[in-house]
Design brief:
globular, alpha/beta, nine-stranded mixed β-sheet, 31% helix, single chain
């Protein structure tokens, strides 16, 4: 599926160590004892008088559902959009009278978890319906069911709603998705993969309506965890050297994964806003500018005195040690190509375990890192290490921007600030990562040695067990105790006979947006995009969102606007420069709809 990334060394090592193809059988499940109708019944709707909202839940959106806990949806409509008649049973029969409103669909799947279908009304919906939006809430299967079933379910729900466009109010051609973390990722996938035929086997298996489009108009993505085929590599390239507790074996893996990302960036052939090709060196400069832009936006929009506690999601580093630069760590990002082993590291792991390699697989338990509420982490199922201290004292009130800059430079001077122009610059990308974005995950951040990350389970086969998926990491583990499990996993096929590569492509927005991949130009991407992330989050690399932004801007006709910001001082959260996430999203949706209406009327 990849044109030139990791060629040679990976293919040779995988073939040499292949354990043969294995097929994972689909587990049978009884069909639920409920009826499915292609047409939504306009009888039996509930009404919330104080909020003026008509709604209906429990609408089955596929003809062959496996689990109605997930595969139903709810529709919530502003009262002014329908005529309603109260029936003898206390419910209402509705009739559409408004055909212009947009639909918004939450993708509430942190860590790619399953999203239970709605069963009732939530007061939170009022904010959207008050703005004249129709709220479409669909349940969907999640990581425990295996990719690509989560996105498949959301696509099926979109198709079902479009199939009922003649009787529903609003404009079903105007659908905006929004989500955070794994939900942001799936929102991005929905935005990138519209109408891709690659999903057809899974849609048909579920009994989705195959005559409608599943493309969306806009995609709102907070901290999207995407591009998982190189997520380990990007993480180590940016943040790997911030750790101080690695064994020699782990250092070797971290450095090699970082070098692999260098090759990937050179191969992507991304371009900046001026049309200049971004090689590894120029991409590093672009990353530096992105960090500086984030800081300068913070400076321009923050009122002093300032206290980080007033910023939702601000990471709260403690005063302890834990992120000193390891001896010999370079000041700049690593350069090189995969296969060039760092000096002093063994070329191959033959004849036993290398020094520092654990005899058994290390046991890891999820711990909070201060970047988000524990309840979110408990739900997202991501393993984090509690070693993210920056050693800086940023948990206090700062009287001026000069005071804040001085706190950033407490250990070493890496931020320069001009009080006349009120602009800042940084002298070291590595110091930024060391002090504000240290690694909080183990080496193999998304495909760890235990295979128990949320992403490992995502690419499993419906039994709740994780599988390995990183091909380059598999090659690096040749002749170690870990290799057999990795090699076996990456050769498995799912219940439809689809390979791991196939399934990973379906969960990678870049596959549809970048000319580097075979899926480029074979889908209908969303016209409007809004991407926000906390720049201090330790959950993924900045490059995750940055490559998505660049691929969208490079895509050409069809993409009307890409509104991107990575927010200074915030972690893994619904990061916003100012205001509330939901109200900012609503404002953006209305702006996008107005843009379309204005162009259509010209």
């Amino acid at each position: 599926m990849y044109k030139n990334f990791f060629s040679g060394i990976i293919i040779a090592s995988l073939i040499a160590g292949s354990t043969g193809l294995t097929s994972c059988q689909k587990k049978s499940a009884p069909l639920p004892d409920k009826s499915y109708n292609e047409t939504i019944n306009l009888k039996g709707w509930s009404y919330v008088k104080e909020d003026n909202v008509y709604y209906k839940t429990g609408i089955i959106y596929v003809s062959k559902p496996v689990d109605l806990k997930y595969q139903t949806l709810g529709v919530y409509i502003p009262g002014q959009f329908v005529k309603a008649k109260k029936d003898s049973d206390g419910t209402y029969t509705i009739k559409a009278i408004q055909q212009e409103a947009a639909y918004v669909m939450p993708v509430n799947t942190p860590g790619y978890s399953a999203c239970p279908a709605p069963e009732s009304y939530s007061p939170d919906i009022k904010e959207y319906t008050d703005a004249g939006l129709i709220y479409l809430s669909a349940g969907a299967r999640g990581r425990e069911h295996g990719a690509p079933l989560g996105v498949t379910d959301y696509k099926a729900a979109i198709r079902y709603i479009r199939h009922n466009k003649e009787i529903l109010p609003g404009n079903t051609d105007l659908i905006f998705t929004f989500g955070m973390s794994g939900g942001g990722a799936q929102s991005a996938i929905l935005g990138a993969s519209g109408d891709s035929e690659l999903y057809d086997p899974y849609l048909e298996e579920a009994g989705a309506i195959m005559t409608e489009s599943d493309s969306v108009t806009g995609s709102m993505d907070w901290c999207p965890i995407t591009n998982l085929n190189v997520a380990n590599e990007a993480y180590e390239w940016e943040m790997g050297s911030t750790r101080s507790d690695l064994s020699e074996f782990e250092k070797y893996l971290s450095e090699e994964l970082g070098l692999a990302f260098c090759s990937y960036i050179d191969s992507l052939e991304l371009k900046d806003e001026n049309g200049n090709k971004l090689t590894l060196v120029s991409y590093q400069d672009y990353l530096k500018k992105t960090i500086e832009d984030s800081l300068n936006t913070f400076i321009a929009t923050t009122e002093f005195p300032y206290n980080p506690d007033n910023k939702n999601g601000m990471p709260k580093p403690d005063m302890g040690p834990g992120n000193e630069r390891p001896e010999g760590m370079p000041e700049d990002m690593p350069e090189g190509k995969p296969g060039n082993k760092p000096e002093g590291k063994p070329a191959e792991f033959k004849g036993g375990k290398p020094d520092g390699m654990p005899k058994d697989k290390p046991e890891q338990k999820p711990q909070t890192n201060g970047h988000q509420p524990p309840s979110f982490e408990e739900k997202d199922g991501i393993q984090r290490k509690n070693k993210s201290s920056s050693g800086l004292n940023l948990n206090k009130t700062f009287d001026s921007i000069e005071d804040y800059i001085a706190a950033l430079n407490e250990k070493t001077t890496w931020v320069k600030y001009d009080s006349q122009t009120k602009k800042a610059s940084i002298t070291s990308i590595q110091d930024f990562f060391k002090y504000l974005k240290p690694a909080v995950k183990s080496v193999g951040a998304f495909d760890d040695l235990n295979g128990d990350q949320g992403e490992n389970i995502l690419f499993g086969y419906g039994d709740g067990k994780g599988v390995h998926f990183d091909k380059y990491m598999t090659a690096l583990l040749k002749d170690t105790i870990y290799y057999p499990a990795y090699a076996e996993d990456i050769n498995k096929k799912d219940f439809l006979g689809k390979s791991l590569d196939y399934r990973m492509d379906l969960y990678n927005p870049m596959y549809f947006l970048s000319s580097y991949y075979n899926g480029y130009g074979k889908s209908k991407p969303a016209a409007f995009w809004r991407i926000r992330s906390g720049i201090c989050q330790g959950d993924t690399a900045i490059s995750t969102e940055l490559m998505l932004k660049l691929a969208l801007k490079n895509y050409g006709p069809g993409i009307k606007d890409v509104d991107f910001a990575t927010v200074w001082g915030l972690g893994h959260t619904e990061a916003e420069i100012k205001g509330k996430a939901s109200s900012n999203f609503i404002e953006w949706v209305l702006k996008c709809v107005n843009t379309l209406n204005t162009k259509e009327n010209k």
